[in-house]
Amino acid sequence: MKLTFVINDIMSEDETYTTIRLGRRALQMGHDVAFVSLVNFTYEPDESVSALASVPRARHETDAELLADVQGDDAELTKICISDQDVLFLRADPAPELVARPWAHVSSLLFAQLAAKRGVIVLNDPQHLTDASNKTYFQQYPKAIRPVTCITRDPAEIKRFIEDQGGKAVIKPLQGSGGQGVFVITPETMANLNVSIETTVKDGYAIVQEYLPDAADGDLRLITLNGKPLQVDGTYACFRRYNDTGDARSNFSAGGKIKLEAPDERALRLAEICGPKLVNDGMYLAGLDIVGDKMMEINVDTPGGINLVESLTEIDFAGAIIRDMERKVELRDHYRGRLRNDQIAVM
């Protein structure tokens, strides 16, 4: 199988990223692997799509070794034909591109759509990822799984919403990731409300959500594959993120910690409810962020945590994902031209 990962940039990758773990596991399983930056695509005169790629020169035993291989001073970019790949796995985070390269992520999705039309399996489906370019996508899921939400740039509307919520709410940028720019508003922090609003709306819309008391215990990250919770040998790819420093954010970039935790009935019910839309939209791999009986977010761009849950369980979740891609390639070859990309993406 020829497997290419689309990333923000090879030099910004980290050995803790799920993308690197998946790439190393695919190499170990005998597949051809390449990493392509958002900005390195070319639409050729013959209507094929090519790209300059970072191609590992060997199989590696650790994620750090693989990263050193493709980031080394002697590493070179190799031109590959994207149209000849079996799978194009989209693993770029749009949030870091908003300021310096706001065009980059959208452009890469358009190249991915061209690749899909040429028979490449593109994960997650690029047409629907274009629709999911910010957190408004989450509002298309059933109301029962979502916290009460207001999306606006109007400070008066934000203050009215917070007042209606009893003085407690969470404010964050509509386009963002990793817990960046998240403010938890309580009656005790109300003096900072104007600053929080100004900071959030200066670069775009704010999303304001009801405060969920269970958030004090962190959130549950449940990884789904083909619209269902991913599990191997009876163990779910699921863990709790929490922060014991007093910071309300449980994201790793904000000092969050993790512990293995199986999803309870509430989490599995939420996954069941959002599953049909994940399948309908061709969202092959997703990360559900759950607090109590509500889902805070759905990460469909760069759902991570595979390496973390593997470290907690010693279970080969990455291998299970790669084997599932192998199965899709076989199905694609049997039904070539008769299945849409968003269909095969979640079969």
Automatic annotation (TrEMBL):
The UniProt record lists the keyword Methyltransferase: no
SUPFAM superfamilies: Glutathione synthetase ATP-binding domain-like, PreATP-grasp domain
Keyword list, A-Z: ATP-binding, Ligase, Nucleotide-binding
PROSITE patterns attached to this UniProt entry: ATP_GRASP
GO molecular function, one term: glutathione synthase activity
Domain of life: Bacteria
Presence of the UniProt keyword Cell wall biogenesis/degradation in the record: no
Signal peptide segment: none
Entry's Gene Ontology cellular component terms: cytoplasm
Xref: InterPro entries: ATP-grasp (IPR011761), ATP_grasp_subdomain_1 (IPR013815), GSHS_ATP-bd (IPR004218), GSHS_N (IPR004215), PreATP-grasp_dom_sf (IPR016185)
EC number, as in UniProt: 6.3.2.3
Residue ranges occupied by any ATP-grasp domain in the UniProt entry: 135-326
Designated name of the protein: Glutathione synthase
